[in-house]
Every structure is written in structure tokens, then in C-alpha cells.
């Protein structure tokens, strides 16, 4: 039992690694909005599988659902940051990106509170707790179609300047947005002359060594500071 539950808990991280590793390829090929929509479907399916595990008397369904949740979360983290940042006007971009961390932390807190035995952590209600991760995904699945695709993606990946302008007007209202379009064009020109490094190449590149050390140290400190225990 200890081995099974250890695998069930840790397989979320394995799924997250796989999901985040494939996020760049998927966003370039399909766009951020489509990827987020499909990712919501994946999370709803995972939630349904875990929610039905008790009725089916199958711990394997929990294992599969946790893995799928991990893949979905791994895809969502970079996708969400990029999409929110790219659809926000420049003066609100920093604030919009910072809200992601706030809501992730809030979600963890709500999950841990809801998991108490007096609430949804009881013997009869725990399937509802495991299925609850599908609720935010369902909300986003219903609301996201009303939002346009990311303007930088339309211009840089698709070369659709009219579509980019239309998306900007829908997001930021009518006005003069040529400066933002020019910035995207400059970024596109810069990226043509920039080599995209793989994870292995990034680790081997001496120029990024100290930045990499700093990020690893900060991330490890967050994990070891006891915040999960709190």
C-alpha cells in the first residue's frame, strides 16, 4: 500500500515533466488558446476518472487520473503565463503575470482546507474532492472561446497581421496600437537570428551557468522551506 500510494502521489510530477517538456512544440503548432482548451478537456477527463474510482473500486483509475492531472498541469503552467502575458496591455502585463502565482497558491490552500476530514476529506466524500480539479477547467473551457488567440502568436507564427490587429482591438479596445505591433515585429526579427536552445544545450552553455545556478537554488529553497508542510 505504501508503494502504491507513493507512486500515486509522485506520478503527478512525472506527468508534469512530460507536459511541460511538450508545451513549446504544441504552442508553436496549434497556438496557445487551442492548447489551453484541449488541456481543459484533459483535466476534466482526469477529474472524471478519479471521481469514479470509488464506484468502480479501482485504485488504478486514481493512478491514471493523477498522471493525466500532472500532464495537464505541466502544460498549463507555461501556457497560462504566456497567454496571460501576451493578451494583457503593456502597463498591466506585470500585474497579470503575478496573479498566476497568487491563484495557484490560493488553489493549493483551498484544496488543503477542503481535504480536511470535516469537509470533503471524509470516507464518503473524497471522490468529490479528487474530481473538484475539473471545476476550474470547466469554467475556463466555457469562457475561453470568447477570448481571441494571442496577438503575438497570430503575427509571429501565423503571419496574420489583420488577425493580430483584430485580436488587439478585441482585447484592448479601439485605439492606436501600432507601437505594440511594431514591438512584436521587432521580436519576430530578433528570434529569426536567435538559436533556440534545448534543455541539454542550456545546461552545457557556459554563458547561462550562473543564471541556471540561481534559478535551481531559488526553486530548491522554495521546496525546502516548509511551505508545502504549512
Give a description of the structure.
The chain is mainly alpha-helical and 230 residues long. The chain folds into two domains: 1-147, Growth Hormone, Chain: A (Up-down Bundle); 195-229. The protein has helices at residues 2-21, 23-30, 32-51, 53-56, 59-87, 93-114, 126-131, 134-143, 151-156, 161-172, 178-192, 199-204, 209-224. The radius of gyration is 20 Å and the shape is globular. The model has no long low-confidence stretch (mean pLDDT 85).
Give the structure's gist in a few sentences.
76% of the residues lie in helices and 0% in strands. By secondary structure, the chain is mostly helical. The protein folds into 2 domains: 1-147, Growth Hormone, Chain: A; 195-229.
SSE succession: HHHHHHHHHHHHH
Fraction in helix: over 70%
Distance between the termini: 26 Å
What do the pLDDT scores average to? Answer: 85
Secondary-structure-based class equals mainly alpha
* Count of discrete domains: 2
Q: What would CATH call the homologous superfamily of the largest domain?
A: MFS general substrate transporter like domains
Share of β-strand residues: under 5%
Second-tier CATH architecture of the largest domain: Up-down Bundle
Q: At the third CATH level, what is the topology name of the largest domain?
A: Growth Hormone, Chain: A
Count of individual helical segments: 13
Poorly predicted ranges:
none
What gross morphology would you assign? globular
CATH class of the largest domain: Mainly Alpha
Radius of gyration over all CA atoms, rounded: 20 Å
Main sheet specs: none
Number of strand elements? 0
Organism: Hypocryptadius cinnamomeus
InterPro entries: GLUT, MFS_dom, MFS_sugar_transport-like, MFS_trans_sf, Sugar_transporter_CS
GO molecular function: D-glucose transmembrane transporter activity
Protein name: GTR5 protein
Amino acid at each position: 500500500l505504501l508503494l502504491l500510494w507513493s507512486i500515486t502521489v509522485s506520478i503527478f510530477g512525472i506527468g508534469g515533466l512530460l507536459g511541460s517538456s511538450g508545451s513549446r512544440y504544441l504552442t508553436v503548432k496549434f497556438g496557445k488558446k487551442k492548447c489551453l482548451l484541449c488541456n481543459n478537456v484533459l483535466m476534466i477527463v482526469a477529474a472524471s476518472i478519479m471521481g469514479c474510482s470509488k464506484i468502480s473500486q479501482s485504485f488504478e483509475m486514481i493512478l491514471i487520473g493523477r498522471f493525466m492531472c500532472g500532464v495537464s498541469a505541466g502544460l498549463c503552467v507555461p501556457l497560462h503565463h504566456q497567454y496571460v502575458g501576451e493578451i494583457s496591455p503593456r502597463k498591466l502585463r506585470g500585474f497579470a503575470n503575478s496573479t498566476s502565482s497568487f491563484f495557484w497558491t490560493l488553489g493549493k490552500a483551498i484544496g488543503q482546507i477542503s481535504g480536511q476530514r470535516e469537509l470533503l476529506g471524509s470516507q464518503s466524500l473524497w471522490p468529490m474532492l479528487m474530481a473538484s480539479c475539473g471545476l476550474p477547467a470547466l469554467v475556463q473551457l466555457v469562457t475561453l472561446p470568447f477570448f481571441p488567440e494571442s496577438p503575438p502568436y497570430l503575427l509571429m507564427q501565423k503571419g496574420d497581421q489583420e488577425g493580430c490587429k483584430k485580436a488587439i482591438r478585441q482585447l484592448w479596445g479601439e485605439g492606436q496600437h501600432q507601437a505594440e505591433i511594431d514591438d512584436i515585429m521587432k521580436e519576430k526579427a530578433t528570434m529569426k537570428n536567435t538559436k533556440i536552445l534545448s534543455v541539454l544545450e542550456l545546461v552545457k552553455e557556459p554563458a547561462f551557468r550562473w543564471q541556471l545556478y540561481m534559478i535551481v537554488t531559488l526553486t530548491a529553497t522554495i521546496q525546502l522551506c516548509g511551505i508545502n508542510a504549512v
